[in-house]
Amino acid sequence: MSDSLVRDSFREQAEACRRLGSPLNALLCATLAERLDRSSAFGRRVLDWDGASLRDDVLALRCCGAFHAQVRAGAAPGLQALYPPNDLPEPEGLWGALAETIDAGDEHLTRFLDRPPQTNEVARSAVLLGGFLHIARATGLPLAIYEIGASAGLNLLADRYAYDLGARTWGDPSAAVKIACQWSGNLPPLDAALRVAARAGCDANPLDPSRRDDRERLLAYIWPDQPVRLARTQAALDLAVAAGPRVDAADAGAWVARKLGEPEEPGRVRVLFHSIVWQYLLPPTRDKVQRTIKACTAAATAGRPFAWLRMEPKDRESAALHLTIWPSGAMRQLANVDYHGRWAQWL
User: Fold this and answer.
1) pLDDT tens digits, residue range 218-253?
2) Taking Cα atoms as reference points, which of 186, 165, 219, 207 lies closest to residue 343?
3) CA 62-63-68 angle, 5° bins
4) Phi and psi (nearest 5°) for 220?
5) 40 and 89 inside one domain
6) Pair type for strands 196-203 and 246-249
7) Which of 19, 275, 307 is nearest to 143 (CA)?
8) Which of 24, 152, 225, 298 is the least crowded, having the fewest Cβ atoms under 10 Å away?
9) Alpha-carbon span 110 to 108, nearest angstrom
10) pLDDT at 119
């Protein structure tokens, strides 16, 4: 990958961070784009990135997570002094602290880049909730939900959270995890009887919410100037420890084939779902998932329906939520939604 392409990708990510409400990460990405050099192992690894796609590898966000992890660990006091709750630093001051952090933690920062971001954005549950409600209303059955790219499994607990949806609410108001999402348009059926009878997920590198290192890795990817997101994710991790949704370490294609190939209980609707995952799957994995979906659709009946719910990128500004339920096979785009679950425009 050329130096100029890498730097351009950091500039693009800086603009995305500005749009999504993280001026600190925007400044960090812009500063690295201009100032990072090859004098460190970290700089060489970044500027000579050997991944297949800068967009899919989200290299800039890996770097943001690496620095945030050092700050959270207390290993970068100079940088920590510039992070929230302190005011946004000047570019020159930020670069000085970044350079100091690279010099002191070169090996750790470089190693952090090995794995892709796993934000497990729990606010996306406010979007997925709308899809689950549509499925519950359409089928009248309990849901068995299966998530690929589940990370720590936080979105597998979407029915356990309390939601402030603008003019409406949903869920137990005493729930420890509270999510605000501005819903507008043709709202999902909030009075549908949503019952989750089974839940499971998989991830190539699942994070265990009960392990400190895994929790810290996930929290490092939450943008440091968004304290509400950080607090909400910590509360969701605590709930995941107590509720224990199972997330298997597995290739999504093999896992879906095995999980959806198991004998199904009658009187349930099986739901395969994912959010901002499809782009990260290798083509053979995507093909295997689609073959399994095709097999499930062929076997679906009114008493044993199958649904595919997915929130995936639409454009730079928003993602799209699509739902297909079999045996009818009718596909609908349910909504245009914010990548971080801040709003959903229902269609």
Assistant:
1) 999 999 999 999 999 999 999 999 988 899 999 999
2) 165
3) 100
4) -65, -30
5) yes
6) parallel
7) 307
8) 298
9) 5
10) 67
pLDDT in tens, 264-278: 888 999 999 999 999
| Of 57, 83, 112, the domain-final residue | 112
Per-residue pLDDT band at 51 (split at 50, 70, 90): confident
| 130 plus 161 within the same structural domain | yes
144 close to 271: Cβ distance less than 8 angstroms = yes
DSSP H helical ranges for the chain: 3-19, 23-35, 41-47, 54-57, 59-72, 77-80, 91-112, 125-139, 212-220, 227-243, 252-259, 283-299
What range defines the domain where residue 317 resides? 122-346
User: Are residues 76 and 128 located together in one domain of the fold?
Assistant: no
Domain count within the chain = 2
Q: Give the chain's mean pLDDT.
A: 95
Same domain, yes or no: 148 and 234: yes
Looking at the structure, tell me whether residues 107 and 133 fall in a common domain.
no
Residues 75 and 130 in one domain: no
- Rounded distance between C-alpha atoms, residue 302 and residue 300, angstroms: 7
Residues 159 and 74 in one domain: no
Q: Please name which of 249, 270, 265 lies closest in space to residue 202, comparing C-alpha atoms.
A: 249
Task: Compute the distance between CA of residue 42 and CA of residue 332 in angstroms, rounded to an integer.
Answer: 45
**117 belongs to a structural domain:** no
Give the helix/strand (H/E) hosting 326.
Answer: strand 319-326
**pLDDT exceeds cutoff 70 at 126:** yes
